[in-house]
Design brief:
Elements lengths: L7 H32 L25 H43 L10 E2 L5 E2 L20 H21 L16 H14 L2 H19 L1 H9 L1
Helix pairs in contact: 1-2, 1-5, 2-5, 3-4, 3-5
Length: about 230
């Protein structure tokens, strides 16, 4: 794609839209994987107990082909769902924070042609400090009719981020972490937080959608200036 023939705000819009498309595909893929996993859940499938005899297999406990096959399928779907959850998380995070970065750049008068992110060799996005969302950084969105929805999406994302941080436990570099010394009420709270944290990728994607709308609002004035010039 030749970015030189298009105004910077057009290529920036396309850049954010591409992040959103990637996050949406990852979300759909993970939803499908989660559904396949649910269909192969050993507690839901009606297992047939019939067995067969195999060489070197105990005659007292015959090999059960249906049980073992379902277990293998379930294991495959579980691994697949885990991998796609990570992809969903990474893609949604890049969408949410990449779009936040773009908004901040525009509101401060910069004209970036593309969202700027870096990735590790393992495919994880490295997020610049100015990409992290906070309500104090969006004063330029005053007057935008979509601001209430934007704020709600931001609050929900931050709530789930806090739950994910709590569920992960103390930073092992600063404080030793030993399951044996976790009180029952703390273990229960961490479990509850982990359930809340599972919805973080969806919350980041939902915030990314609102942030993309906010970016379009922030770009109204640069577009008008470009048209006048």
């Amino acid at each position: 794609m030749k970015t030189t023939t298009m105004p910077w705000f057009e290529t920036l819009t396309d850049s954010v839209h591409a992040l959103g498309a990637a996050a949406r595909e990852a979300q759909h893929a993970h939803q499908g994987a989660a559904l396949n996993l649910a269909h192969s859940d050993l507690d839901r499938v009606r297992l047939v107990d019939g067995g067969i005899q195999l060489p070197h297999w105990s005659p007292d406990m015959p090999y059960q082909p249906h049980v073992h096959t379902i277990a293998l399928i379930n294991g495959h779907h579980r691994n697949h769902a885990h991998l796609l959850y990570r992809l969903h998380h990474q893609s949604a995070q890049a969408y949410a924070y990449g779009t936040t970065w773009a908004i901040r750049q525009v509101l401060t008068g910069n004209q970036p042609p593309l969202v700027q992110l870096t990735r590790t060799a393992q495919g994880f996005y490295m997020l610049p400090s100015e990409a992290y969302a906070s309500t104090e950084g969006f004063e330029g969105l005053k007057g935008w009719s979509g601001r209430p929805d934007f704020d709600r999406a931001l609050t929900e994302m931050q709530r789930r981020e806090a739950a994910a941080e709590y569920a992960a436990g103390p930073d092992t570099e600063d404080e030793p972490f030993d399951d044996e010394y976790i009180a029952d009420h703390e273990a229960s709270a961490m479990h509850d937080a982990s359930i809340v944290a599972e919805g973080l990728p969806d919350a980041m994607y939902a915030y990314g959608q609102q942030a993309e709308r906010a970016l379009r609002f922030a770009l109204l004035e640069p577009r008008r200036q470009h048209t006048r010039s």
